[in-house]
Amino acid sequence: MSLLPFAIAAWLFIIGLYGVVTSKNFVHLIMCLVIVQSSTYVLLLAIGYKVGGVAPVFAGVKVGTPAVDPVVQALMLTDIVVEATVAALLLALAVQAQKRFRTLNPDKLQELRG
Amino acid sequence: MTTQLAPLPVVIPLAAAGILAGLNKFTPRRLADIVSILVSAAVLGISLDLMNAAARQPILYWFGGWTPRSGVALGISFAIDPVGAGLASFASLLVLSAFVFSWRYFESVGTLFHALMLVFLAAMCGFSLTGDLFNLFVWFELMSAAAYALCGYKIEEVGPLQGALNFAITNTVGAFIVLTGIAVLYGHTGALNLAQIGRALGSDSSPIVIVAFVFIMAGFFVKAAIVPFHFWLADAHAVAPTPVCILFSGVMVELGLYAVARVYWSDMDGPFAPHRMALTSLLLSVGTITAAVGGMMCFAQQHIKRLLAYSTISHMGLMLIGFALLKPAALAGVALYVIGHGLVKSALFIVAGILLHRYATVDELRLHGHARRLHVTAGVWVFAGLGLAGLPPFATFLGEAAIEDAGEKAGQGWVWVVFLVSAVLTAGAVFRVGARVFRGWGTRQKSARGSKEIADKPETTPSRRGVPPQLFGPAAVLAALALAVGVTPGVRGVAQTAATRMADAAGYQAIVLDHASIPVNPPPVEHVFPMSSVLRGVVATGLALALAALSLSRYWRREYIVFKPVRGLISGLQQVHSGHVGDYVALLTLGVAAFGIVLPVLMKLGL
Amino acid sequence: MSRRVRSVLFVGSALAVFFVYLWAARGLPRFGHYQGPYGDVINQVGVFERHATDLVTAVNFDYRGFDTLGEEFILFISVIGVTLLLRQQPEEAKDEQDNMAKNDESLGRDAPEPSDATKVMTLALVGPLVAFGIYIVTHGQLSPGGGFQGGVILATAPLLVYLAGDYKTFQRVASHTVVEIGEAIGACAYVAVGLAGMAGGGLFLQNVLPLGTTGNINSAGTIAVISAGVGLEVAGGFVLLMHSFLEQALSLRLRSKQ
Amino acid sequence: MLILQIAILVMVAAAGTAVVLTRDPTSQVIGISFFGLLLALMFFIFQAPDVALSQIVIGAVALPLMFLLTLAKVRLNVDIARISDQQNAKRKENEEAA
Predict the structure, then answer these.
(1) Entry pTM
(2) Residue A114, domain member (yes or no)
(3) Engineered SS bond to B333: which of B54, B403, B457, B491, CB 3.0-4.6 Å?
(4) Across residues C16-34, what is the average pLDDT?
């Protein structure tokens, strides 16, 4: 049972990649990338968790109370911002690609071969 | 004093980018050009200074003043050794040339392009100098974000958009894989500082450590364009604007390999010490495949920028072979090779940019004989091609010779064959292009790609009047530098000292965590290269010239029986390089799986 | 590769990756037993050293503040990238607008006018939203929140104005140039705080301000200043992102109102 | 592990899978917004309120909004392309008739 969070992180990773590989629409594909990224959230969260620990906010809680790891949470904040911005960049590329190719389907883009 | 300068290579370009972008609408183009050139020159100066100082004593800089408490790092540090500072200097040199080159190149850009390039520079410097694993990832992402935007810059064309999408999607997946590896390593050791992780790991080679390294390695190999993670590279390079190509090929992909080397030498040398042979065998085979695939694909191209891109893949394979030997001497060779290759490749890309500027195409067959009058440009092209072939005394030759030498000592005496094949194929292709485009040799052929060809549009209004010095100047200077570095006395000693320092994990940990200082070793005496390696460099160049001549002759197009399997192989490879991002990600996953299974199996076998 | 080959190849490799992943995860500390030391040390010393009660914010803006500098510039550069990528080519802009107007006519839809009730309701939300955003930005060192979260909340305020159909006000509030400058100031503020540490003879990002009383709003020194700068940058950045995606619709709607 | 923790983890996995398998982007946006909320809930349950807050504002609001705007813009582009195609065809017809 204690492997469950890690198994779920791994599952999100490969199912997201599955979406990326089989996608027929770039917007769909970018959302699948968001799922892949959420796998890293689950992993980081699971690594820093402490059973019975409080959140690392010591307002009204005495220092010394067992608390979960604040470092992974800081890393996750970075991760979330990265996710949003990379998604925005990819979406902008997809919008322009659609304008030029008149399709969002990766199967139909044949410009770069060989 | 120099220690105080440590954060500046990152901070100055970031601040300049912020100001330029904020005042986007009020800044004249020329002012932005001048500011950017000055900033990159300043960063170059500071990084060189840091490199000098770090050669005496590695520089440690704790941001916010958070020094470690009893061996636990609370903050982020720059741990600057000569290799890191050298890479930062090299990156700023290339950014500087890119800015000089784009003085005339983009005629219709605002200051946003400058802001992107400056942030790109800051990210590369941060990436080279940092001593923290997660910080490495942050700069990696910053570098990527700037690169995606720069790659898709020419939105009015179809090619760039697909190239940028493929690039962005595969590299984003790569970044997630790296992050997963970092998280696993953090969960295992409770540390993010490279030195602290190394100390915590000791010689622990449990599955978790191996898999964490596999993830980190595979993720960074996406950036480094190692087969089978390399597919994005040709697409991105074929379509990115020329100044951006310089940075992509010249230094960005090499930084991917640098990250793997940094993580290995600071953390993983202990765990892998009893299993070095396993790692070496795996990486040597991957490097050999990369060199071969890149070389063959390179020779099969007629789109000049794509051709150069595949040549980069081939050379990345060679650099990986150098790293795979896991010896400081080979690492020194890689450092020299990175510089030599980056310089000549940038010069070649600039020449391709000049052709695009003048003739509005970079198709080798369409350009047939068109550039007969560009004598100087032709000279630069051939000169840089000689450097690519590893002709003594180019810096590429020095690197190659050092790696081959280390290979022989490590019982891998066959390495030179891979170098030879790669040099013959890639330089042969470059010479073939040169002869066709600048001399009009060979028969005139119709471009076979027809309508499928990547639509090239000039990045400027094509002009038929001579080539302005801002365009070919940087190319000539960079190519000349590649030779100058090669003949500088003592350069091998410097590289050797730098590599030894980078490969000294215990020393690194002592400096970072215990504030120890390390005695300075005098640079080792440079022994003369054996005649055989000089001979190999000359032979490789000769064979490359011969191959170019053969491919232009009428024999080439006949259906000789010997050509058949080669042609079949190449057309098979071309099928795999399909331009479909789904294929790329599927093969990337295959690569991760293969690494994750083969490496533990090899270790079990006791290699 | 054909679809089929690709899928088979991928599923096989992905399963292998899945098991390799789990093989590694078995070596991690058991779930719920984080062993430190990094996080535990921070939990012990953070409050005393930084006078901040929210240690995630303390890690973000001070202990690992250099990461956050990079992260802030990831947002900054992505906004620039999106602006660049979605820029309109001069010749296509005119064409497109003509076509778009025709399109709206042909579909019989003019830019729809929101009802007065919607207008009042959305505009009434703007005030509290801004107040909430500012609260989150300024209390980052005390309670969950900070520049990033508050900044995004602030960025939604101009969007509400847009939804209320008040395009003129939206353009004034969210004037591209002004927001661009504001965003850059936010980004540069971070660098400036870092350099202030060096100017005082210390190190980059070293705290130079009085730490104040733990639990007060003006405590924690540079953390509060950085948080405010990040809030400005993030708010500006997200408004610009929305701007880029909304641009075409906006110009059309402004025209139809004239 | 608490039942609650197990439940939220399983729900996140299921929602993620559903988002991937939804092939229509418009319904997928609704799915990803829901998925974002579930993630935020998970962060709360695992004592990460800071992360939960940014997940709500970014993952459940800003990001889906960007996806929606993209889809709207794509639809607009499709309409424009269709109209200009029609115009070109008409022009050609006229020219041929002339």
Answers:
(1) 0.93
(2) no
(3) B403
(4) 89
